């Protein structure tokens, strides 16, 4: 297997819902493993996500987990997920789904460098950047 780099997002108890949401946005099927499956079947967090991975038809990979009890959760303080490319329709579709129910800090519009760019935080507290470059012809 080749090396790859992908985001790993920590959630405060709603990783399952977040990964199902990202499945709706990007496609694919999430693989979800709970704390209960890995030796803690009677723990209060047994149904929470210890590890999740979503691999999409476009080759994206998102990983996630619920923050274990006793560990601090710092949503959005240490990661922003960036989507970029030149497929205007596809990227605008992702933007619409990700920003719905969240907050937009930079509207998706043409910027001084010539690309269409926007920043939002989805309803789970994850910050996103979307950059649509002009197709090279």
TrEMBL record:
Gene3D superfamilies linked: 2,3-Dihydroxybiphenyl 1,2-Dioxygenase, domain 1
Signal peptide residue numbers: none
Superkingdom to which the source organism belongs: Bacteria
Domain Glyoxalase/fosfomycin resistance/dioxygenase, first and last residues per copy: 5-129
PANTHER family noted in UniProt: PROTEIN YJDN, PROTEIN YJDN-RELATED
Name of the protein in its database record: VOC family protein
Biological source species: Streptomyces capitiformicae
Species classification: Bacteria, Bacillati, Actinomycetota, Actinomycetes, Kitasatosporales
């Amino acid at each position: 297997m080749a090396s790859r780099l992908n985001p790993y997002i920590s959630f405060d108890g709603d990783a399952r819902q977040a990964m199902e949401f990202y499945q709706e946005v990007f496609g694919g099927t999430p693989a979800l493993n709970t704390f209960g499956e890995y030796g803690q079947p009677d723990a209060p967090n047994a149904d929470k996500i210890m590890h999740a991975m979503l691999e999409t038809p476009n080759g994206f990979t998102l990983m996630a987990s619920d923050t274990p009890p006793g560990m601090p959760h710092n949503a959005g303080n240490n990661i922003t997920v960036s989507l970029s490319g030149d497929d205007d329709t596809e990227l605008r579709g992702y933007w619409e789904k990700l920003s719905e129910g969240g907050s937009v800090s930079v509207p998706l519009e043409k910027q001084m460098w010539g690309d269409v760019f926007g920043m939002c935080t989805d309803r789970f507290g994850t910050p996103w950047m979307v950059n649509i470059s002009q197709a090279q012809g």
